[in-house]
Amino acid sequence: MADFASAAKAPPKDPCLEDMSRLGDLFFWVLGLGFLGGRAVFRPALPMLQLRLPATYALRGLNTASIGRLSWRAYFRDPYLQALIDTALAYNQELRILAAEVEMARWEAQARRGEYLPFVQLGWKNEIEKVGAFTPSGAVESNLVPEPGRPFPEPMSMYEGGLYASWELDIWRKLRNARRAAFLRMLAAQETRQFAVTRLIAEVAEAYYELLALRALIAVVDTYINVQSQALHLTNAILRPRLS
C-alpha cells in the first residue's frame, strides 16, 4: 500500500513555471489595483475640464414656436461662429443669385400692378413736313394759296401737346390674374432665399460644433494615452526588480 501511494504522487513541479505563474498573478494584481485606485495612484497630465451647468437658461421661457422668431445672432452667441456665418452669408454665390431673383420678382410684381391702373401721359410733339415738288402733295400745294400773297410755309411745322389717359377694362380678369401670379412668384422667391439662408447657417453651425467635438475628443484621447503611459511605467518599475 505504501509503494502504491508513493507511486501515485504527482511529479515535482518545475521552479521556473512556478516563478512565471507568480509573476503573472502579480501582474494582474498590479493592473487591477491600478484600475481600481487610478485616481489615488495616477494623475493625468492634462486635467479634464469640469462642465458647469448654469442655474438658469436665457431661452427658458420660450417654446419651440417662438424660437423660430429669433434671429440667428440671438440663437448662436458664440462670436467665432457668428463671424463664420457672416462670412458665409456675405460671399455665398448662391445667395447672391437668389437675391437678384427676388429683386426681379419684386419689380415684375410692381409692373403687373401698374398695368391694372389707368395710364396718364403728358406729352408734347413737334413735327416738320416737307413734300417734294413733283409729288401729288407738292403739286396741290403749288396750285393752292391759302391767302393772297401768302403761300404754304416751306417746310411746314406742326405742334401737338396735351394730356392723354387710358384705362383697360379687365373684363376677363387677365390683368388681375397676372398681378396675383407675379405677387406669388415674388413671395416664392423670398421664401426660397430665406430657406437658403437658414440652410447655410445650419450647415456652418453643424460643421463648427462638430469641429469643437472632435477637438474635445482629441483632448480626451491624449489624456487617456498619458494615463496608460504612466500605468505602463509604474508596472515596469514594479516588475523589473523581480525579473532581474
Sheet/helix structural class: mainly alpha
Shape: rod-shaped
How much beta, percentage-wise?
Answer: 5-15%
How many alpha or pi helices?
9
Average residue pLDDT: 77
**Secondary-structure element pattern, one letter each:** HHHHHHHEHEH
Relative helix content: 55-70%
The largest sheet is: 2 strands, antiparallel
Count of strand segments: 2
Strand order of the largest sheet: 1-2
What is the terminal-to-terminal distance? 46 Å
Poorly predicted spans: 1-11, 36-42
The whole-angstrom Rg is 48 Å
Task: Walk me through this protein's architecture.
There is one protein chain. 63% of the residues lie in helices and 9% in strands. It is mainly alpha-helical and 244 residues long. Among the domains are: 71-116 and 171-244, no CATH class; 118-166, no CATH class. A two-stranded antiparallel ribbon has the order 1-2. Helix 2 crosses helix 9 and helix 7 runs antiparallel to helix 9 (174-243). It is rod-shaped and about 145 Å long.
How is the secondary structure organized here?
Elements: H1 2-7, H2 15-36, H3 38-41, H4 64-67, H5 72-75, H6 79-91, H7 93-115, E1 119-129, H8 136-143, E2 156-166, H9 174-243
Antiparallel strand pairs: 1-2
